[in-house]
Design goal:
The complex is a heterodimer of chains A (437) and B (250).
Chain A lengths: L9 H13 L7 H14 L14 H4 L12 H8 L11 E6 L2 E4 L8 E5 H7 L17 H9 L2 E7 L9 E6 L7 E10 L4 E9 L7 E10 L4 E9 L5 E10 L4 E8 L4 E10 L5 E10 L4 E10 L5 E10 L4 E10 L7 E10 L5 E10 L5 E9 L3 H8 L5 H20 L3 H17 L2
Parallel strand pairs in A: 1-5, 4-6, 5-7, 6-8, 7-9, 8-10, 9-11, 10-12, 11-13, 12-14, 13-15, 14-16, 15-17, 16-18, 17-19
Antiparallel strand pairs in A: 1-2, 3-4
Helix pairs in contact in A: 2-6, 7-8, 8-9
Chain B lengths: L1 E10 L2 E11 L4 E5 L6 H9 L5 E9 L2 E2 L5 H7 L1 E4 L6 E5 H15 L7 H14 L4 H5 L1 E2 L5 H15 L3 E5 L7 H14 L5 E6 L3 H5 L4 E6 L2 E6 L2 H9 L11
Parallel strand pairs in B: 3-10, 3-11, 6-9, 9-10
Antiparallel strand pairs in B: 1-2, 1-4, 4-5, 7-8, 11-12
Helix pairs in contact in B: 2-3, 4-6, 6-7
Classes of the chains: A alpha/beta (437), B alpha/beta (250).
Chain lengths: 437, 250
C-alpha cells in the first residue's frame, strides 16, 4: 500500500518555514536541530488519533505557528519584570528569561553552583550538553522535538558534588508582547553526587495574547542527590503553553516535583521520569485550576528501570465553566525493576455541568515482585459536606472554597517542605478561588 | 420563637411530614420523640435548610421570619443551629480554621465586626475546656478520626461558640457512652437561657434524664400526635410507641 502523505496544516507549514529561516541564526550544532525537526515533521503536529495526545489535539489547538520572539528590548524586559509572581518574594538565586532569552543571570553564585546561559553553552559546546536527552521516552515527543529544533536560550546549571544549595534557584520565564509570538527555552540541570538543590520556575505573560511558549527542563540527578522542584504556570489568559520536564535519577535520589496550573488557555505539562539507579524516591504532584474554555493536560511517563524505587504521583484538578482537564499517567516497570513501589492518583472536582475531565492511568508491569496502584476519581463537591458547612453559616461560595482549598492543598502538603514556597503556592490557589466570587 | 404551621414535606414523591404543627417558646426545651421513620430527622433538616426536601405546604417561622425563604447559611446567621446526628468529617480543613470561618461568616452576615484571633482563641479554649476537648483535637482536620463521642462534643462546642438562638439536637445521644452523655448534656444545660429555645430529638427517654425538657411531643407518620410535659417521656418509655405507630397510615 502506498504511503499516504498527510496534508500539512497551516501551522505545520508555518513551522517548516520558520525552521528554514531561523535554523542558521540559532546557536549550536545545526545537525542536532535538523535531526530534531525531522523527528517532528515526519509525523507533524500530534492529533487525537495519536494515543499520547488523545485528549489534547495539538493539530486542532495550534492553528497558526507564531513567529519566534526576537531578543527583548530594555522596555520589553522592564515590562516583563513587572509581572510580579508570588514566588518572587522568596529569597532566591534568580535568573530572568524574557521571551525566551536569558536577560539576567544571577549576580553572584554560591560555591559549587554554575549557571551558564544556554545560548553561550550551545555556542561554546559546553561539555554538559552531552547530558541532554537523557530520558529516551521524550525523544520523539512532538513538543520536545520542536523545542530541540528551535531552542534559543535558557540555562545550563551544574550543582557540584556534595554542594547543598541553601537558597532556591528561581528561573523566571516572563513573556511580553502585544501580538502572538513563540518561545523555545531549554534548561539543563546536572545535580552531581550528594548535592541538593531547590529549583523554582515561574511562567507568566500577558493576558489576551495568543503566545506560544514551549519549554523543556531536563534534569540529570546523580546518586544520593536531592532535588525539590516547584513550578508555577501563571501564563496569560490566551497562551498555549507546552512544557516538558525530564529527569533521570541515579541511585538513592530524593526527587520531588510540583506543578501548579493557574491560568493559560491551553497547557500541556509533560513529565518523563526515569529511575536509572536503585533505591530512589520520587514524588510528582500537581494542582490545576481551570475555568472558561481552558484546557489543561498533565501527561506523565514514569519509567522504573531500576529496582527498589518508589514513585508517588498525586494530581488534583478543579474544573469550572466549560473547561477540560486531562490527566494521563503511565507507570512502566521493567522486568529488572523488582521491589518497585508505584502509586498514582488523579482526582478531579467538576464545578459545572459543562466541565470535562479525562483521566487515563496506565500501568505496564514486567516485573513480578512489585506494588503498583493507580486511582482516578471525578466528581462534584459532596452535597452533605456543603450542607454541613452552610448550616454553620458559611455562604455557598465560601463553603465551596473551603472544600476546594483543602482538596487542592493536599499535593502541596505532601510534597513541599519549604514553608514559604508552600504558602506562596497556597496563596495562588486562594486567589483563584476568591476570583470565582 | 419557633412556630411551624401545617408543614407538608416530601422527598422523591414520598410524603414525610404531613401537616406538622409545633410551637417552641423562648427559653423552652421541647423534646420530640417517636418511632423510626416518623420524620424526626427530616424535620430537623427542613428547619436547617437542607435542599433535598420538597416543601409542599406550610411555614416555619423563627421570631416571625420565614425560614423557608432563606438559604441554610442565612438561617444559621438568623440563629438556627443543628447538631447533626452524624457529624461530617472534613479532611484537610483544620477544626480551628472551620470554627473561625463559621463564626466570622455569621458575624459578617449580621453586620458585626469579625473577631480578632486572640479573642477567638480565648472563646474556643474556654468552650473546649468545659466540654473536656483536648487542644490538639482543635488542630486536627474537622471530625477526621474523632470517636463518636468526640464528634458529638465538637457539635456542642460549635453550638456554644456560635451562640444560636434556636438549637436542634438530632439524636445527640446516639453512640454516646454514659460519660460522654453526661458531658454533652452538661454542655447543653449551660446554654439553656431565657432567650434560647431547644428542640431535642431522641428515641429514648434516657437523654431526657440529663436534659430535662419543658415539653414533650410525640411524632408519628409525619405529624405531632400528642404533646405533654416531661412525664409523657416516662410514659412512652414504659409503654413504647405501639399506640402511635401507623396510627394514621394511608
Amino acid at each position: 500500500m502506498a504511503d499516504i502523505a498527510m496534508i500539512k496544516t497551516a501551522a505545520e507549514t508555518g513551522l517548516a518555514n520558520l525552521f528554514a529561516i531561523t535554523k542558521s541564526l540559532l546557536p549550536g550544532d545545526a545537525a542536532h536541530r535538523e535531526d530534531a525537526f525531522r523527528r517532528f515533521s515526519e509525523r507533524g503536529l500530534p492529533h487525537r488519533r495519536i494515543e499520547e495526545w488523545k485528549y489534547t489535539d495539538l493539530r486542532a489547538l495550534l492553528r497558526d505557528a507564531a513567529p519566534f520572539a526576537g531578543k527583548p528590548t530594555e522596555a520589553d524586559i522592564a515590562a516583563a519584570e513587572a509581572l510580579d509572581g508570588p514566588l518572587t518574594a522568596i529569597d532566591s538565586i534568580e535568573a530572568v528569561i524574557v521571551n525566551g532569552h536569558l536577560v539576567r543571570a544571577p549576580a553572584a553564585l554560591p560555591p559549587g553552583v554554575e549557571i551558564v546561559p544556554l545560548r553561550e553553552a550551545l555556542g561554546s559546546g559546553h561539555p554538559l550538553l552531552a547530558r541532554m536527552g537523557a530520558v529516551g521516552h521524550a525523544h520523539d515527543n512532538a513538543a520536545y522535538a520542536l523545542n530541540a529544533a528551535f531552542m534559543s536560550d535558557g540555562a545550563v546549571i551544574r550543582i557540584a558534588a556534595g554542594t547543598h544549595v541553601e537558597r532556591p534557584i528561581h528561573l523566571r520565564f516572563l513573556n511580553t508582547g502585544a501580538t502572538p509570538f513563540a518561545t523555545a527555552t531549554r534548561v539543563l540541570v546536572h545535580v552531581e553526587v550528594g548535592a541538593s538543590v531547590t529549583l523554582l520556575e515561574t511562567h507568566a505573560g500577558p493576558g489576551g495574547v495568543g503566545y506560544q511558549p514551549n519549554g523543556v527542563v531536563e534534569m540529570v540527578v546523580d546518586d544520593h542527590a536531592k532535588v525539590a522542584h516547584m513550578r508555577l504556570n501563571a501564563e496569560g489568559s490566551d497562551a498555549l503553553a507546552l512544557s516538558t520536564l525530564t529527569a533521570r535519577l541515579g541511585a538513592k535520589v530524593a526527587f520531588d516535583s510540583f506543578n501548579l496550573v493557574a491560568g493559560t488557555q491551553v497547557s500541556r505539562h509533560q513529565v518523563y521520569l526515569a529511575f536509572a539507579g536503585e533505591g530512589s524516591n520520587a514524588g510528582i504532584r500537581g494542582a490545576t485550576m481551570i475555568n472558561g474554555t481552558q484546557h489543561a493536560d498533565t501527561t506523565l511517563v514514569i519509567d522504573h528501570a531500576a529496582p527498589g524505587c518508589t514513585s508517588r504521583e498525586l494530581f488534583k484538578t478543579v474544573v469550572d465553566g466549560q473547561a477540560t482537564g486531562v490527566f494521563q499517567g503511565k507507570i512502566i516497570v521493567h522486568s529488572r525493576a523488582q521491589k518497585t513501589d508505584g502509586r498514582m492518583m488523579s482526582a478531579a472536582v467538576l464545578l459545572s455541568e459543562e466541565g470535562t475531565m479525562n483521566n487515563k492511568p496506565e500501568l505496564e508491569i514486567f516485573a513480578d515482585d512489585v506494588q503498583c496502584a493507580h486511582g482516578a476519581t471525578c466528581g462534584q463537591l459532596d452535597e452533605d459536606l456543603l450542607f454541613y458547612l452552610r448550616s454553620r453559616g458559611l455562604p455557598l461560595k465560601e463553603a465551596e472554597a473551603l472544600l476546594l482549598e483543602s482538596f487542592l492543598a493536599e499535593p502541596i502538603g505532601e510534597g513541599i517542605v519549604h514553608e514559604d514556597i508552600a504558602a506562596a503556592l497556597t496563596g495562588v490557589i486562594d486567589g483563584w478561588l476568591r476570583a470565582r466570587g | 420563637m419557633l412556630q411551624i404551621n401545617n408543614l407538608v414535606v416530601q422527598i422523591e414523591d414520598k410524603r414525610i411530614l404531613n401537616g406538622l404543627n409545633l410551637t417552641v417558646n423562648k427559653g423552652e426545651v421541647a423534646a420530640i420523640m417517636g418511632p423510626n421513620g416518623s420524620g424526626k430527622s427530616t424535620l430537623s433538616y427542613v428547619i436547617a435548610g437542607r435542599e433535598d426536601y420538597e416543601v409542599l405546604d406550610g411555614e416555619i417561622l423563627l421570631d416571625g421570619q420565614n425560614l423557608l425563604e432563606m438559604e441554610p447559611d442565612q438561617r444559621a446567621a438568623a440563629g438556627v443551629f443543628l447538631a447533626f446526628q452524624y457529624p461530617l468529617e472534613i479532611p484537610g480543613v483544620a477544626t480551628m480554621t472551620f470554627l473561625k470561618a463559621s463564626l466570622n461568616a455569621q458575624r459578617k452576615a449580621r453586620g458585626e465586626a469579625e473577631l480578632s484571633t486572640p479573642d477567638f482563641i480565648k472563646r474556643v479554649n474556654a468552650a473546649a475546656a468545659k466540654l473536656e476537648i483536648q487542644k490538639d483535637m482543635l488542630k486536627r482536620a474537622l471530625n477526621v478520626g474523632f470517636s463518636g463521642g468526640e464528634k458529638k462534643r465538637m457539635e456542642i462546642l460549635q453550638m456554644a461558640l456560635l451562640e444560636p438562638t434556636f438549637c436542634i439536637l438530632d439524636e445527640t445521644d446516639s453512640g454516646l457512652d454514659i460519660d460522654a452523655l453526661r458531658i454533652v448534656s452538661e454542655g447543653v444545660n449551660t446554654l439553656r437561657e431565657a432567650g434560647r429555645g431547644f428542640l431535642v430529638i431522641t428515641h429514648y427517654q434516657r437523654l431526657l434524664n440529663y436534659i430535662v425538657p419543658d415539653t414533650v411531643h410525640v411524632m408519628a407518620s409525619g405529624r405531632i400526635v400528642k404533646s405533654g410535659g416531661k412525664e409523657l417521656a416516662l410514659e412512652l418509655e414504659a409503654n413504647g410507641y405501639a399506640d402511635y405507630r401507623q396510627s394514621d397510615a394511608a
